[in-house]
Amino acid sequence: MTPAATAAHRQAQAPAGRSTERPATGKDRPRRPRLPGRLRRAGLPYLLLLPAVLVELLVHLVPMVMGIMMSFKELTQFTIRDWSVAPWNGLANFSATVDFDAPVGEALLDSFLVTCAFTVLSVGLCWLIGTAAAIFLQDTFRGRGLLRTLFLVPYALPAYAAVITWAFMFQRDNGLVNHVLHDQLGITDGSSFWLIGDNSFIALLVVSVWKGWPFAFLIIMAGLQNIPRELYEAAALDGAGVWQQIRKITLPSLRPVNQVLVLVLFLWTFNDFNTPFVLFGKSAPEAANLISIHIYQSSFVTWNFGTGSAMSALLLLFLLAVTGAYLLVTSRGRKQADV
């Protein structure tokens, strides 16, 4: 029987509805396009980020855009009811703000200088105390866990509760600070005013450092965990002392951590509103009149929302410029160190 006849015979003997053809294997089947699957995998991260982006738009970006729009309008207690139809003021609010010969500009400049001095001192002390405490607790000894917990208490306490406690401690007649400095130690000649006058700057600085240094301590302590102990052991065998180990090993190894830490502390401190507001109230003393409180007074006390919005816009530009310059300088320093 010929092959053709054999195939016809098998086809005739096959049950009805069945095919005698060999089923296609995986190699014979046409491959489906994988593009939709790749699109789903590529779009999944954006889908997960979408809720955070929406919240960011609602909480930060939309109010920011509205504040910038308000800075170009003449907004007072008479026009704030419907600010969208308030008279257009152009750049007049910005001109009044940067005119340092006029009372508005002069007051803003004084507040800006006070804020700069306060920020430099607060950030420097927070970093110094936090770094010293983290290095001190790097070695294992009895009671280290308890000290770590105690050091983090100021950072864990609610800001309002902590600052209100300090406000009571700084009271002139029955405050703990005057009791210790004058009655117990005899350092001061009499009970000092800490919440008014020039001493208000010192009081604000103490509270800010007390609240901020535990954060620096926490970040530095985490960064120290990534430094190999073998480096310290080798340096000790070579005769390096403690200070040489800190200067040659610890600080260079912590440079990336310190770059981020200093930037975060700077932004937090420069924009701090809760601490001076709770400590002094709506009207801070001139020596402790931070720019955040000054903008609040210009907006909600004198009812000049257009000028206050212009001050906020200028503050945003200043912080963006400082942040960009800081990142540029630190990135260049890191590249030169790597080379």
Automatic annotation (TrEMBL):
Superkingdom field: Bacteria
Biased composition (Basic and acidic residues): 19-28
Span of domain ABC transmembrane type-1: 112-326
Gene3D superfamilies named in the record: MetI-like
Region of interest (Disordered), ranges: 1-37
Start-end of Low complexity biased regions: 1-16
Subcellular compartments: Cell membrane
Transmembrane segments: 44-69, 112-137, 149-169, 201-224, 253-270, 310-329
Sections of the chain in a coiled coil: none
Membrane disposition: Multi-pass membrane protein
Keywords: Cell membrane, Membrane, Transmembrane, Transmembrane helix, Transport
Keyword flag Membrane: yes
Family: Belongs to the binding-protein-dependent transport system permease family.
Entry protein name: Sugar ABC transporter permease
